[in-house]
């Protein structure tokens, strides 16, 4: 740990990562993850997918930037720091006044504000990643995996006009994206990538269902494959996990005591290691158990 690390020292550390011999995965975590949990997640990615991981931690725990509780949050559930608590919000309690559910919603909304305020920091971080990649002697390819409200941070970055500072990643994965489904086809193509784009969905994702109600019935991109218009581009896929991941919000790492099935492990491993999810000559119906549409745009596991 280096408090107040300088840009020079940070870039030197990143250069060592890119010269380390393994593909690099840049991870932007989602809602209600303290820094220690972010780095635990990075270690989990390294263990599962044989990548070197660089994580971006942002204030997602639902507190004010000062670290204090937001006014009106009683603490009934505010200290849990449980990224699954949003799943308690549903049609029966989303407008409750006071109590544990109201706390969860207030923390989530503050996290969204913090994500918007973190856009410039995220752009600066990714700019450093790009410079380090360019400065490495034998640079490994890198991809980006953003989860849940981490996708919101990316969207806010683009809406703030900071997209020109982003490096070109090989692949970008938008995992269980907690952003509006509506008009996603307008901003996602602005993400700079040289190869694949994966947008994962799960119609029974309890956390995104809670977010839908917390945001007054706003459909979330990661909850289901959208109706057209879609993002149509080479090696772009909407991957539906609804049949394989009932209720899950973190199906790409299979936490909570679960095991990531071999075929899903292989897909994520290739994609996170900056390769194609469907390799050259591979049968899409072997890669994705329930196959893909004719244009390989929508695939089902």
Please explain how this structure is put together.
The protein has one domain (7-68, 112-300): 3-Layer(aba) Sandwich (Rossmann fold). The relative contact order is 0.13. It contains nine helices and seven strands; from the N terminus they run H-E-H-E-H-H-E-H-E-H-E-H-E-H-H-E. By secondary structure, it is α/β, with parallel strands linked by helices. Helix content is 34%, strand content 11%. Helix 1 crosses helix 4 (119-135), helix 3 (100-117) runs parallel beside helix 5 and helix 4 (119-135) packs across helix 5.
Query: Helicity level, as a percent range?
Result: 25-40%
Q: State the strand order across the main sheet.
A: 2-1-3-4-5-6-7
Beta-strand content bin: 5-15%
Kindly provide the radius of gyration, computed on alpha-carbon positions and rounded to a whole number of angstroms: 19 Å
Top CATH class: Alpha Beta
The CATH topology, please?
Answer: Rossmann fold
Mean pLDDT: 92
Q: Please give the count of helices.
A: 9
State the end-to-end CA separation. Answer: 40 Å
Order of helices and strands: HEHEHHEHEHEHEHHE
Q: Specify the structural class.
A: alpha/beta
CATH architecture: 3-Layer(aba) Sandwich
Biggest sheet descriptor: 7 strands, parallel
| Tally of distinct domains | 1
Shape summary: globular
Q: Strand tally, please? A: 7
Report the uncertain regions.
Answer: none
């Amino acid at each position: 740990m280096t408090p107040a690390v300088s840009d020079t020292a940070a870039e030197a550390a990143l250069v060592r990562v890119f010269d380390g011999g393994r593909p690099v995965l840049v991870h932007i975590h989602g809602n209600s993850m303290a820094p220690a949990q972010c780095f635990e997640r990075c270690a989990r990615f390294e263990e599962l997918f044989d990548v070197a991981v660089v994580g971006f931690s942002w204030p997602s725990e639902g507190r004010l930037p000062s670290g204090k509780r937001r006014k009106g949050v009683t603490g009934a559930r505010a200290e849990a720091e449980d990224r699954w608590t949003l799943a308690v919000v549903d049609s029966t309690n989303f407008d409750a006044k006071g109590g544990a559910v109201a706390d969860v919603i207030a923390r989530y909304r503050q996290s969204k504000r913090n994500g918007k305020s973190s856009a410039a920091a995220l752009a600066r971080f990714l700019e450093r990643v790009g410079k380090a990649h360019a400065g490495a002697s034998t640079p490994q390819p890198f991809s980006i995996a953003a989860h849940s409200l981490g996708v919101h941070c990316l969207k806010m970055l683009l809406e703030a006009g900071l997209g020109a500072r982003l490096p070109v990643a090989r692949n970008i994965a938008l995992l269980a994206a907690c952003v509006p489904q509506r008009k996603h086809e307008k901003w996602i193509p602005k993400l700079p990538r040289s190869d694949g784009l994966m947008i994962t969905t799960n119609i029974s994702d309890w956390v995104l269902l809670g977010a839908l109600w917390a945001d007054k019935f706003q459909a979330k991109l990661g909850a289901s494959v959208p109706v057209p218009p879609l993002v149509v581009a080479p090696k772009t896929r909407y991957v539906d996990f609804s049949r394989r991941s009932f209720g899950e919000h973190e199906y790409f790492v299979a936490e909570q005591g679960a095991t990531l099935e071999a075929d899903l492990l292989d897909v994520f491993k290739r994609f996170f290691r900056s390769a194609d999810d469907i390799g050259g000559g591979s049968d899409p119906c072997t890669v994705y158990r329930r196959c893909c549409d004719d244009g390989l745009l929508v695939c089902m596991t």
